[in-house]
Amino acid sequence: MKRNYQKIILVVLDGLRPDTVTLARMPHLFGLAAEGWQADAAITVTPSITVAALTSLATGLTPAEHGVTRPGLPPLARLPGLRPLPRELRQLGVSTTVHLPVLGAGARWIAGALLRVGGVTRLCARGTTPASVVEFARQQVEGNRHREFVVVYLNDTDVAGHAWGWMSGPYLQAAARLDRAVARLAPLARARDTLLLVTADHGGGGVDPRDHDALHPLNRRVPLIAAGAGIAAGQAGRLPTHLLDIPPTVLNGFGGTSPAQYAGRVLHEAFSEELVPACG
User: Fold this and answer.
1) CA gap 68, 73 in Å, rounded
2) Cys bridge to 165: 42, 150, 198, 209, which one at CB 3.0-4.6 A?
3) How far apart are alpha carbons 276 and 35 in whole angstroms?
């Protein structure tokens, strides 16, 4: 059966290393991966920092192309042919909602960057815990009958990693909190028209135990999990997989096609059913 999703939910768990996703540490996310599809070895952008990765997710471009490698957004609108993912989705009749924790300084920059890149329909920054942020997102998905792309951003593991070190006790406690929060979204993936994607913007602790910007596999490796209708359940992707594959896959999942300048590819191997392009 061909598929064109009504809802796609992207969960970005800032700083979550894939080796954290085990049955003992994150049983809910581990179970979601086991029942769904997961990349065998996904990597993020270079440099492996949040501002670069989130801008790449929003634009489909590498950091070398969009130039955002530190806080302070350059004039992205001046880039020739810039086609941000939310604007592309709007052309398909799909709105974009971003859910964040209550805004601190870093999150405030992220929110402003997303809005300036263009195309985000709604920004929700009301939750004070991972569970409350996810609850607002769940209500959004269940209460909106229209097609939409919902992004949920949670940064507890990144905060703990910088403060105490990646894979430290506080870091693993933060991962457990995120695991319980993501479990609240997992039932949404059982709907016939919904796709749930879970990833991270970077890992950490590869060189400096409390940082993630050095060129090291532990900093660059990220989890990438897909669950929902039409997913190749119980499969692990063996092809090279990149964070930049998410924007083309989201567009394809809504029936669209990727602009030529998008650096990634559609993760066709994650699906057991063909994704049908939109008529136009």
Assistant:
1) 6
2) 209
3) 24
Share of the chain above pLDDT 90, in %: 73
Q: Which residues pair with 196 in a beta bridge?
A: 9, 227
- Residue-wise DSSP of 3-29: B--SEEEEEEETT--GGG-STTT-HHH
What is the dihedral sign for C-alpha 66, 7, 177, 198?
negative
Residue 99 · residue 151 · CB < 8 Å? yes
As a whole number of angstroms, the distance between CA 182 and CA 131 comes to 8
Please write the tens of the pLDDT for every residue from 97-108. 999 888 766 656
Which single residue is written with the structure tokens 């039932």? 187
pLDDT given at position 278: 44
The C-alpha angle with vertex 61 and arms to 60 and 63, in degrees rounded to 5, equals 135
pLDDT tens digits, 17-59: 999 999 999 999 999 999 999 998 899 999 999 989 998 999 9
pTM of the model: 0.93
Pair 155, 179: CB distance under 8 Å: no
Q: Exposed (0-12), middle (13-18) or buried (19+): which is 189, by Cβ within 10 Å?
A: buried
CB atoms within 10 A of CB 203: 27
Q: Is residue 113 within 8 Å of residue 51, measured between CB atoms?
A: yes
Overall average pLDDT of the 258-277 stretch: 84
Distance between CA atoms of 262 and 59, rounded to whole angstroms? 8
Is the peptide bond preceding residue 47 cis, with omega within 30 degrees of 0?
yes
Domains and CATH numbers, the chain: 7-266 (3.40.720.10)
8 A C-beta contact, residue 247 and residue 264: yes
Question: Using an 8 Å Cβ cutoff, are 126 and 132 in contact?
Answer: yes
Structure tokens at 109: 């920059």
